[in-house]
Amino acid sequence: MSGLISPILEQAGFVKSKLALAIEWVAELDGFSQQWNLSSPVTIPFGSDFKVSGAGIFSRDGFYFAASKDSDRGRFMISGSTGNVYFNASNIGNLSSEKLQSLADGNPHKVTFQRVNGVDASLLVDGEVYMSNSWSDQEVYLDSIGAQWGNNTSIPSFEGALYNFEIEIDGVLTNSIPLTNKEQGATQLPTVGNVSAFMPNYTDAVWKNKAKL
Fold first, then answer.
1. By C-alpha distance, which of 45, 54, 157, 170 is closest to 110?
2. pTM (two decimals)
3. For residue 2, is pLDDT > 50?
4. How far is CA 80 from CA 76, 118, 210, in A?
5. SS3 116
6. What is the pLDDT, as a whole number, of residue 151?
7. How does residue 64 score in pLDDT terms, banded at 50, 70 and 90?
8. Which architecture characterizes domain 28-212 according to CATH?
9. 24 phi, psi to nearest 5 deg
10. Please, are residues 30 and 161 in contact by the beta-carbon 8 Å criterion?
11. What is the reported pLDDT for 12?
12. Structural domain boundaries of the chain?
């Protein structure tokens, strides 16, 4: 009986459909007053290898994570206008027009900013290396996701959905915040680590069905 589903129970609503189980929600930031503020900063030490990653749709201004409180140590960004790729305050190069166009195709992509060997930086999109260059062994400081970078008003807050945020340090997944739990509302809880994310100026209207993005 374990593999059988009663038609009567299904009609009565006791059995959830596969479609209902597959529904996922993402929160769309407004690009102005909303971002995800971390409950406590995450510091990536000097010289450590790391991956900072998340999924989302490339916005008109680009794709990025940013630390709003420290303008030198928390910017991971792809500029929408130039294709420049930033690690902290350093521009490590710019994407070709072909790669920039493929990233800005209107579909969700997983974007990963990575450092290996302590000084080598790479940008990966859906697992493919889009850019690599030497960088530095400097410390990284993150206190927010999608926030305006420092006091630089030319780089506004991210507009659109960012989700599946993860930080890996020296091969260990230290932080994971899916940002997809509609029931949790403005404060999204982690599945790995003890750092949560809070959205100021939250309303229920931020939630969109991921399948319709």
1. 54
2. 0.86
3. no
4. 13, 27, 22
5. strand
6. 63
7. confident
8. Sandwich (2.60)
9. -125, 150
10. no
11. 44
12. 28-212
